[in-house]
Amino acid sequence: MAESSASIAEAEVSFRKFAVHGDTKATGKEINGKNFAKLCKDCKVIDGKNVTATDVDIVFTKVKAKTARVITFEQFNQALVELAPKRFAGKDQQEALPLLYGLIAGKGPANVGVTKVAKAAAVDRLTDSTKYTGSHKERFDESGKGKGKAGREDRPDTSGYVGAYKGQGSYEDKVKEA
Fold it and tell me: Is the full-model pTM beyond 0.70?
């Protein structure tokens, strides 16, 4: 029996890891239905034959309080008591429960199938400022670095010259010549 109490403590550690998974406000004392289903899936409690995701949802609903959306560790243990004989068909509850705790003990949420950051050629092409044309081209300097506010706003030219005049700044030279 000492072995099963150790695995219950390890199962509680796993319970806490899954309880806070994906929820910044979670304390680790209660687990919601989605994370309970994830725990069952990641720890291979759901095997697809004897125990399905539907079974896990039904057991979760059965052990939680009527208006609650989460279950405590004690209710989690009740849920495992319900799931154990189903998961290990042919074994009675006394044999199946330690085996179920063994599946859960020491495990944490797996990040398998989590979406990776896409680094495709299309993204590179869209973010390459050398390929920009028209007014968008004006937002970057020669090195491709953004000009910031100067690139987004039209700043009035108060130099006194018209826009396309090529001899800008040459007035002083012409006055000296005369």
Answer: no
Torsion of CA 29, 105, 22, 72, to 10 degrees: -20
List, in sequence order, every residue forming a beta bridge with 72; answer none if it has no partner.
30
pLDDT tens readout for residues 6-40: 578 888 888 888 888 887 788 888 999 999 998 88
> Residue 45 and residue 42: Cα distance in Å, rounded?
8
Strands (E) located in the chain: 30-32, 70-72
pLDDT 10s digits, 51-95:
999 999 999 999 999 999 999 999 999 998 899 888 888 888 788
The amino acid sitting at 54 is T
DSSP at 127:
T
Token output for 131: 């390929």
Sequence-separated (6 or more) residues with CB below 8 Å from residue 69: 32, 33
**What is the DSSP-derived secondary structure letter of residue 140?**
B
In 98-125, which positions are buried (b, 16+ CB within 10 angstroms) versus exposed (e)? bebbebbbebebeeeeeeeeeeeeeeee
